[in-house]
Design a protein that fits this description.
- With 257 residues, the protein is of the alpha/beta class.
- The chain has a single domain, classed as Rossmann fold (3-Layer(aba) Sandwich), CATH 3.40.50.
- The protein contains eight helices and six strands.
- A six-stranded mixed sheet has the order 3-2-1-4-6-5.
- The longest helix has 23 residues.
- Bound molecules: iron/sulfur cluster (SF4).
- The site of iron/sulfur cluster has 13 residues, from α7.
- It catalyses: [thioredoxin]-disulfide + sulfite + AMP + 2 H(+) = adenosine 5'-phosphosulfate + [thioredoxin]-dithiol.
- Belongs to the PAPS reductase family. CysH subfamily.
Length: 257
């Protein structure tokens, strides 16, 4: 009996995702045991030369990965998603780090105005539907920004929460490869590196914000709490969606919303 055929686009997407999964597994095995700097060097200068971007929120511990990337190549594209709901301190911190580290290709992306006008005209969607808010303010702009990049560098760490506990150095993200050079770094490693290299702290850390996202969805973390406990406090939500499967197949006009 003839098997029903899937539409071409989903089939092509599925194949691309399979290829990315195989490649990520291979790279993870081949580069196991390398330092963060070695992983970045291999990814930026060899594996994905001119085809890789770093994504940074310029949040509480972003300075370390930015410093490492700047050592390898300060002209590496750095994508920053300005959700238009960020703390002023984060924007100032971004400008400070860009100047200090000599980063020459930082690209700030914002949500599409027509999406905000239609779905969040009062800037209050975060309260009624935070998943949709993250989708139009973070996920879609990032998917647009990464359209020409088959690989990207992320600053996630295993210690950050239980969801990230099994994070590999290379992982498939739809058809793309995501590189996590700091996967096995601890909070102490991050802080020691920051101090050793004289990197400034995000201005809100001293007030107890150990993970800094959008202002309406970020609160202080109490002693002993998970560092990301202050994000979407009181809700089930733990991730904004940019690290969940499906980012790379998301497009503003194809989301059906
Ligand atoms: S973190 Fe909050 S304000 Fe920011 S995009 Fe997500 S729901 Fe909206």
């Amino acid at each position: 009996m003839e098997q029903p055929k899937l539409p071409l686009a989903p089939v092509a997407q599925a194949r691309a995702a399979e290829r990315a999964t195989s490649l990520a597994d291979h790279l993870d095995r081949r580069h196991r045991g390398q330092t963060a700097l070695e992983l970045i060097d291999a990814s930026v200068r060899h594996l994905f030369r001119n085809r890789i971007a770093m994504v940074s929120s310029f949040g509480a511990d972003s300075s370390v990965l930015l410093h490492l990337v700047a050592q390898v190549d300060p002209s590496t594209p750095v994508i920053f998603i300005d959700t238009e709901q960020l703390f002023e301190e984060t924007l100032a911190y971004r400008d400070d780090l860009v100047a200090r580290l000599g980063l020459t290709d930082v690209r700030s992306h914002r949500p599409r105005p027509e999406r905000l006008k239609r779905l969040d005209p009062e800037n209050f969607l975060w309260q009624s539907d935070p998943d949709l808010c993250c989708r139009i303010r973070k996920v879609e702009p990032l998917a647009d920004a990464l359209r020409d990049f088959p690989a990207w560098v992320s600053g996630r760490k295993r210690f950050q929460n239980a969801v990230r506990a099994a994070l590999p150095a290379f992982e498939a993200d739809g058809p793309r490869i995501k590189v996590n050079p700091l996967a096995d770094w601890t909070a102490k490693d991050i802080e020691a590196y920051r101090i050793e290299h004289g990197l400034p702290e995000h201005p809100l850390v001293k007030f107890g914000y150990l993970s800094v996202g959008c202002a309406p969805c970020t609160s202080r973390v109490k002693p002993g709490e998970d560092p990301r406990a202050g994000r979407w406090r009181g809700r089930e939500k733990t991730e904004c969606g940019i690290h969940l499967p499906g980012l790379m197949t998301t497009e503003s006009h194809g989301s059906g919303i």
